[in-house]
Amino acid sequence: MKMNAAMRTFVDRPVNVAPLLSDALERLLERGLKEVGGAVLFAELHPQNKLPRPELIESNYVDLTGYEALENKFHVEDYCEGDILGQAMLFLDEFKKRWSTRFGKAVVIIDYDPTNELGATCTFRFHLERSGQMWLDESTLDEFCAPILVEHVH
Q1: Taking burial as the number of CB atoms within 10 A of a residue's CB, which of 51, 59, 101, 138 is the most buried?
Q2: Distance between CA atoms of residues 107 and 65, nearest Å
Q3: 111 — phi, psi (to 5°)?
Q4: C-alpha to C-alpha distance for 126 and 96, rounded to whole angstroms
Q5: Distance (Å, rounded) from C-alpha 136 to C-alpha 23?
Q6: Quick one: which H or E segment has residue 36?
Q7: DSSP characters over 81-123
């Protein structure tokens, strides 16, 4: 797991996290993943069984990795209350346990903003690891002001 210094301060802190994932996050995992046109997507977040036309993916997302990173993004606070970063970390642990290697390798990105004027926010997203495609340059994590982490799932 790679993270910037801002994220390390939150991940290393002692927390009182419920040992259980919220029901809504558990349902997201239970509904599973599906493969559509070479992309792996959360079934609940992507009910369609087809992708946009390739030219739309290229013009709006650059490539299939960009499409996955945006289609598989959700705000953790929409699925739970309380310690949203703790819930994101629990979700990551469960995601890793359930990841099927038949899909290949995944890259998970969690970012956290504890200072948002409307309340803390935390996003979880993933995409497949593809040769020649990159959604986030991991060598630049320390340049981010906001806490961010990247985990490769095999």
Answers
A1: 51
A2: 10
A3: -125, 155
A4: 11
A5: 30
A6: strand 33-36
A7: -S-HHHHHHHHHHHHHHH--GGG--EEEEEEEETT-TTS-EEE
* CB burial readout 80-97, b (16+ within 10 A) else e: beebbbbbbbbbbebbee
**Model confidence at 15: pLDDT above 70:** no
What's the CA gap between 154 and 144, in Å, rounded? 26
Phi, psi angles (nearest 5°) of residue 56 = -70, -40
C-alpha 53 chain-centroid distance: 24
Other Cβ atoms closer than 10 A to 52: 15
- Residue 106 sits at φ, ψ, to 5 deg, of -115, 155
Residue 19 has pLDDT above 80, yes or no: no
Predicted confidence (pLDDT) per residue in 100-154, tens digit: 888 999 999 999 999 888 899 999 999 999 999 999 999 999 999 999 999 999 9
Evaluate the CA torsion angle 90, 94, 96, 99 in order and state its sign: negative
Q: What is the pLDDT of residue 22?
A: 96
pTM: 0.93
Q: Judge residue 1's burial from the number of C-beta atoms within 10 Å of its C-beta, 0-12 exposed, 13-18 middle, 19 or more buried.
A: exposed
